[in-house]
Design goal:
4-stranded parallel beta sheet, alpha/beta, binds iron/sulfur cluster, Rossmann fold, single chain, elongated
């Protein structure tokens, strides 16, 4: 065959059942695949299908896809939080890069750093100023349990003593990947209506 000739088109044998079998079984969040369940034939969306859902489920789905954090860095962990939203780790992939300066526009308080007793009432006030529903991530050992300062007279022994915590991210400091994992866990919790 001459080099400027195209080979003849080959017919593609494609069955819809093949596509169903080959569907990836991982979740969108990357937190592992659910047990494989053989898909129901005919479950592919087309113009003949109607999908039912409750408003609550739709709201939970939408909320889980854009948890806006409150920009609230207290110590060294905040540097990792900033790195998570920068280009290399790109928190925007998960809809959580819009750090708000006002608690009234935020969904998630990421407590990134050491919380002192002096700061605790301010933290609580900011939490109360966030609209419902709202969530809290304790980022790092200090925020989770006092960490390095476990016996300090000045340090709160865990931010869960002043606000309810949904996800704890361990580490000193946790890397940006760990914070992203925490946000993915939170997304799953929000998705389930938590
Ligand atoms: S956990 Fe470690 S890195 Fe984070 S604020 Fe405490 S001392 Fe700093």
């Amino acid at each position: 065959m001459a080099v400027d000739q195209k080979p003849p088109a080959r017919p593609i044998h494609f069955e819809i059942s093949d596509a169903l079998k080959q569907r990836p079984t991982t979740t969108q969040t990357g937190l592992g695949a659910p047990d494989y369940v053989a898909p129901t034939p005919g479950a592919i969306a087309n113009e003949d299908n109607v999908v039912f859902a409750t408003v609550k489920d739709l709201m939970s789905w939408a909320r889980s896809r854009s948890p806006w954090p409150l920009g609230y860095g207290l110590a060294c962990c905040a540097i990792e939080m900033m790195a998570a939203s920068a280009s290399h780790h790109d928190l925007a992939r998960f809809g959580a890069e819009v750090f708000r300066s006002s608690p009234r526009q935020a969904d998630v308080m990421i407590v990134a750093g050491t919380v002192t007793h002096k700061m605790a009432p301010r933290l609580r006030r900011l939490y109360e100023q966030m609209p419902e529903p709202k969530w809290v991530i304790a980022m790092g050992n200090c925020a989770s349990s006092g960490g390095e300062f476990w016996d300090s007279y000045a340090t709160l022994q865990g931010v869960d003593t002043v606000v309810p915590v949904d996800v704890y991210v361990p580490g000193c400091p946790p890397r940006p990947e760990a914070l992203i994992e925490g946000i993915l866990r939170l997304r799953e919790k929000i998705f389930r209506g938590g």
